[in-house]
UniProtKB/TrEMBL annotation:
Belongs to the NMT family. The keyword Transmembrane does not apply. Adds a myristoyl group to the N-terminal glycine residue of certain cellular proteins. Residues 12-27 have a biased composition (Low complexity). This is Glycylpeptide N-tetradecanoyltransferase. Residues 70-229 form the Glycylpeptide N-tetradecanoyltransferase N-terminal domain. It comes from Dorcoceras hygrometricum. One of its GO terms (molecular function) is glycylpeptide N-tetradecanoyltransferase activity. The keyword Acyltransferase applies. It catalyses: N-terminal glycyl-[protein] + tetradecanoyl-CoA = N-tetradecanoylglycyl-[protein] + CoA + H(+). Signal peptide: none annotated. Keywords: Acyltransferase, Transferase. Pfam families: NMT (PF01233), NMT_C (PF02799).
Amino acid sequence: MADNNAPTADLVSSGDNNNVSSDNENEVSIDALAKKVQESLSLAKRHKFWETQPVGQFKDLGNSSLPEGPIEQPIPLSEVKQEPYNLPTPYEWITCDIDSEEVCNEVYNLLTNNYVEDDENMFRFNYSKEFLCWALRPPGYFRSWHIGVRVKTSKKLVAFITGIPAKIRVRDTVVLMAEVNFLCVHKKLRSKRLAPVMIKEVTRRIHLENIWQAAYTAGVVLPTPITTCQYWHRSLNPKKLIDVGFSRLGARMTMSRTIKLYKLPDQTSTPGFRKMERHDLPAVTRLLRNYLKQFVVAPDFDENDVEHWMLPQENVVDSYLVESPDTHEITDFCSFYTLPSSILGSQNYTTLKAAYSYYSVSTKTPLLQLMNDALVVAKKKDFDVFNALDVMQNEIFLKELKFGPGDGKLHYYLYNYRLKHVLRASELGLVLL
C-alpha cells in the first residue's frame, strides 16, 4: 500500500487553458508503462519493494488467464505479525491521536512543510487541520491506522502514514478495503528508506483488523495502475494564477482578455439549486448509490458515509443539490472539497485556494449546467482555481467549461486485488483525497 501522493502537476496548470489537447485516450499502453519504469532508477529501488508485494506486476500485463480478485488469500489473524516492524535505532513508532489538538498540530506542520510539491517546487499542498480530521475519521475508523514516526530523543514527528476503512465495489463485489494516504517523510530523512517500512507497518495493522485489500494513488508509476487519470484546472482568478506562475498567459492573449474569458455569472442558473442539508441525506444517498453503480470501481456508500463525506463543512467540503421547485424531489447533486496549496516563491501571495471536484450526479439538470453552477459558487467563495479529474462522467464538462489539462497524471492502485484490464478513467467512480 502506498501514499496517496497526488501527481506533482495536479498542483500546476499547463498554461493557457484554451489549448486543450485532444489526446485524452486514457488507455495505458504497456510499452509506455515499461518505458517509464526503465527510465527511472529511483523508481527501480521502489520496485524492488513492490515486486515483493501482492500487487499487479508489469510482467503480467495482458495475461488474461489470471483471475480477477484477490491475489493472495487471507491468513489466520494469529499468523499476522503481532509486533511492529523495526525502525532504524533513533526512531520510534507512535499512534497519532488526531483528536488531540497537539498531535493534530504536529501532523499539520509535518505535512505543510514536507508533503507533495510540484516539479518546480513552487507549490505545496496545505491540508487544513479541519480537513485532516474529516479525512481521517470516517465511520468505523481505526486510530491505530494513523501512524507516526518520532525521533526518540527530541520526540519530533518526522514521518506519517494513514489508512481509513472503506467499502469499495469492484464490478459486482463489495470489498472492505483500506484507503492509504498521507505518506510523508521529513525532507531531511528521505534517504533513510523509511517509506517501505511505513507501508509494511500500515499493512500489518490493517491485516490485524482482518482487512486484506487497499486502494491508493500516487503521482509516480508503480506496479501496476488500475487506471491513470489527468487533472484539469479551471481558472477562477486568472490574474492571481498567472502572477504566481500557476498558469501562463496564452499566446496572443492579454490579461484583460483572459479575465474576460474566465468570467462567470454572478448567480447560479438552475432553479432549486441550494446547499445540501442534513434532512437531504436519504435522497442524496439514493442519488449517489444509483449513479455509482455504472462504474467498474466505486465506493459503496451508505447513509452514514454520505453524512460524513458530503454534509457541508466550512473550508472542508461543499455540497449542493437541485430540488425540483414543483415536486420537491432531489434530482441532482454536486460537491467539491477545499485543498489549498502554499505558494513557495511569491512576494505577494502565500496561499492558492483550490476547490477539487468530488462526487456529482446529474439526472435532470445537464451536468454541464450543474458544474457551471458549482464554478459560480466556488468563485463566490473566493477560490482561485477549480480542479477536476477526468474520472466518472467529468469529460462531458471539462473542455466546455474552459478547464485546461494539467501536466501530471494520477495513478490509481489496488493492493492485493487484480483487475484483468486497465480501466479507462471514465470507468472509475472513486475519488481519493
